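Why should sequence recovery work at all? Because a backbone constrains its sequence more than one might expect. Tight turns favour small or flexible residues, buried strands favour hydrophobic ones, and helices have their own preferences. The token representation captures these environments compactly. In the example below, the structure is given first.
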């Protein structure tokens, strides 16, 4: 098919997520490899978004493609109730890398379903109805996951009947606690969470669900001691601690799982995206021994037709094995420490529109502001249309330079493949340098 045929069919038949259908004009993509994709006119884009933060191993890695082809030739699919070699191997490789005793894996088709099932497990394990989640968060678009979500995408879906209570997590740059140091922010955020638990009634709270590093809300790296403090609150009140690692697992932050940075073990850990770089949809829940025991002789009331799909699991086995053999997790850590972190901080020093730089590994964000003194965001919260014009102009400048950005609110998230080459990091930073001049021009 040519570009026009692709776009005509898309316009006629494809219903796109999170969009007013007549107001969008999706780019027709012709191919992708490594850290790049290209359109039918030959325009190449350096992908600083890793699709939707999932092509951790890059596009079209030959070892993963070959594993999918081999599995397809041998056995494309089989029902989830059977024991299958590739499914068992994927679960083993995941369990070997999760913290502590998270040794059982329930496979899903993606991250939102993983969160749905983690909450279900927590409620059944505790016999309690309520779940606590942070305001600055995103957990998916299925019924429970979108109600857990704190950002504005919840608004059109909020049923107010999901048993979800939101609280403020730590974020020093825009502290809801008037803190001036990371230590103060941590202490006050934990006190606020403890108060929320107490006033909701600990006996009614099944789980606290947190993104280990907040992804969609702006790459929010928790202060030292915060996750350990949440773990202690959960232990003291018999609450299940769920860490959502859908976006940050499998090398994204320079560790296999972001929880490893703080040596904290949750009771349940959700994953997807990077587990097989999105080559075939796959997600899951890694389950602690105590929660697995709840369902040892009691049926778990949940399942999915494609749970642990052989093609997806083959892609996961190849991805995890290749990442280990090629040192890709360590590469992600080096890229962040030696290239992205210093490079982005240098951009911030040159561009007054950059209010803050934050991140780990190949997962960073620039907070763009109208005034660095007041920290007023470059665009208002949940801005759209004319109100979002400064961010739209900035994104357009990135694209014209050959960089595909991931923008959210007043931020650009920098999340290239964990395999990105140093010369591509340098090229991406150069394009960002030019685009940030556009953001500077929109300051107050």
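From this structural description, the recovered sequence reads:
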């Amino acid at each position: 098919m040519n570009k026009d045929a692709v776009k005509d069919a898309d316009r006629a038949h494809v219903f796109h997520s999170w969009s007013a259908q007549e107001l969008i004009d999706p780019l027709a993509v012709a191919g992708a490899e490594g850290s790049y994709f290209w359109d039918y006119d030959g325009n190449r884009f350096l992908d600083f978004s890793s699709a939707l933060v999932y092509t951790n191993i890059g596009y079209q890695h030959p070892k993963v493609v070959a594993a999918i082809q081999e599995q397809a030739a041998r056995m494309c699919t089989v029902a989830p109730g059977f024991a299958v070699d590739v499914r068992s191997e994927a679960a083993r490789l995941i369990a070997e890398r999760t913290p502590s005793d998270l040794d059982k894996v329930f496979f899903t088709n993606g991250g939102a379903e993983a969160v749905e099932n983690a909450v279900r497990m927590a409620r059944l394990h505790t016999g309690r109805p309520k779940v606590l989640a942070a305001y600055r968060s995103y957990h998916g678009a299925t019924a429970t996951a979108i109600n857990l979500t704190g950002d504005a995408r919840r608004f059109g879906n909020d049923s107010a009947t999901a048993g979800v209570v939101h609280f403020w997590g730590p974020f020093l740059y825009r502290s809801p606690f008037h803190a001036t140091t990371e230590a103060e922010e941590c202490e006050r955020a934990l006190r606020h969470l403890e108060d929320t638990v107490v006033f909701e009634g600990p006996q009614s709270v099944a789980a606290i669900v947190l993104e280990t590093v907040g992804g969609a809300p702006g790459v929010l790296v928790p202060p030292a001691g915060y996750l350990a403090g949440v773990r202690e609150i959960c232990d003291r009140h018999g609450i299940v601690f769920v860490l959502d690692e859908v976006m940050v697992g499998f090398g994204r932050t320079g560790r296999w799982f972001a929880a490893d940075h703080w040596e904290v073990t949750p009771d349940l850990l959700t994953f997807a995206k990077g587990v097989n770089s999105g080559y075939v949809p796959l997600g899951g829940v890694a389950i602690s021994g105590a929660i697995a025991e709840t369902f040892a002789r009691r049926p778990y009331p949940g399942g999915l037709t494609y749970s642990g799909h052989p093609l997806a699991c083959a892609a996961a086995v190849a991805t995890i094995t290749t990442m280990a053999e090629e040192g890709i997790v360590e590469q992600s850590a080096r890229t962040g420490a030696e290239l992205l972190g210093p490079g982005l901080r240098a951009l911030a020093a040159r561009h007054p529109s950059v209010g803050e730089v934050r991140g780990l590994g190949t997962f960073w964000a620039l907070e763009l502001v109208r005034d660095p003194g007041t920290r007023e965001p470059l665009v208002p919260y949940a801005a759209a249309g004319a109100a979002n014009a400064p961010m739209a102009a900035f994104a357009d400048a990135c694209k014209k330079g050959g960089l595909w950005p991931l923008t959210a609110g007043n931020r650009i998230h920098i999340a290239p493949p964990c395999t990105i080459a140093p010369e591509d990091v340098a090229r991406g930073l150069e394009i960002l340098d030019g685009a940030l001049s556009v953001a500077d021009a929109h300051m107050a």
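A few observations help interpret the result. The radius of gyration is 21 Å.
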